[in-house]
Amino acid sequence: MNTRVLTGITTSGTPHLGNYAGAIRPSIQASQQPGVDAFYFMADYHALIKCEDPQRIARSRLEIAATWLAAGLDPERATFYRQSDIPEIPVLCWMLTCVTGKGLMNRAHAYKAAVDQNVAKQLDPDDGVTMGLFSYPVLMAADILMFNANRVPVGRDQIQHLEMARDIAQRFNHLYGQGTDFFVLPEVQIDDEVATLPGLDGRKMSKSYDNTIPLFEGGSKALKVAIGRIVTDSRQPGEPKDAENSHLYALYRAFSSQDAATEFRAQLEQGLGWGDAKTSLFELIDGQLAPMRDRYADLMARPDRIEEILQAGAVKARGFSAPLMERVRAAVGLGAHVAVASAAATKTEKSANKTAKFVSFRDQDGQFRFRLLDAQGQQLLSSEAYTDPKMAGAAVKVLQTTPLNQLISVLGSQVTVSVDGHIVCHFDAANHVAIQAALDTLTA
Ligand code: TRP
Question: Is residue 305 part of a domain?
């Protein structure tokens, strides 16, 4: 079974070098590994929490999409989409909101930090705090649980959100799962291998510190200017440098092979001047970014092409989210009325001898199987083969007497029914409601 890796980037800014090395580059590498199904998305609903400038939102999501693609993400292989193109996400967010304790959200770091700042300024504790900011972890949980992600690579600041997503998933599973787990409990993935780049001033590179090095913006010239502004100590050329503690070396290492980094370090320790060191760093990074920069410029000039890729990604993503949403709706009691209606309808249909039924038969290989047919005689599911007809009969009995939800497990849109550890059959999640309805008429 493949591991589902999922992560999102909030679309409220222009990606910088730190975003590339810390999130985009390792995620693209992960998406190329065998056994991994990658789900990467633009968290544009999240962007509305911190940005009320429509132009900036629009521009940012285009830039971030172009960055992923220019950096080499293969949208055929990964599922690459925009959060706002998946209508099931906000619906799931609401359903999760209804099972999430307010107390849990009170403990969220981002909210608490806002409150602390207000208190320090002697303002109302909730001054300027929107419900979006307050319940932001629920939206993030919906992003993750919607696709039953196994692993979520994020920065350390997001660990708490992953814990909350697990809490919320457990709560929902407990309330509505009836013994089956709707939602996979996601694992946070913090990569110590992955570079957290220092910014110009040596603190973590971040837009909020205004210390970033641009990724593509301004081209090679802007990259050179920014590298020129990296803070160093005042040691002169010829004087040995403390490579280990220099931001320049940390940046170099994030883009070079182990051997080249060792070599660069030795040069610094032997007195390489900071100016020359900056030139080497620029050449190293520029060499890697130049081809991507060209692709980026091409993509930015063709927003229609990006749109097409994202629409295709949304179709792929909805192939997972729509069937899961059907199940979630049914679980909370908001399923289509067919389940209720057909239960009522059986009474009349029974007299006309038209009802759902199980039919058993012997296949060409002499094995025993059964099918579930709906009232119109359409096949709803077909069982695996049994050598012993009694076993087949026993499975039918279990299906008629046990709530379906207690027998199923779900992988993507495939639902597997098992009885006593033996697989009875598989069906597509899209048929879940109809199958449930048919079984209801048989147990009624
Ligand atoms: N909140 C994340 C951040 O600020 C972005 C994000 C939104 C995300 N939804 C997600 C990350 C789901 C991982 C999974 O970095």
Answer: no
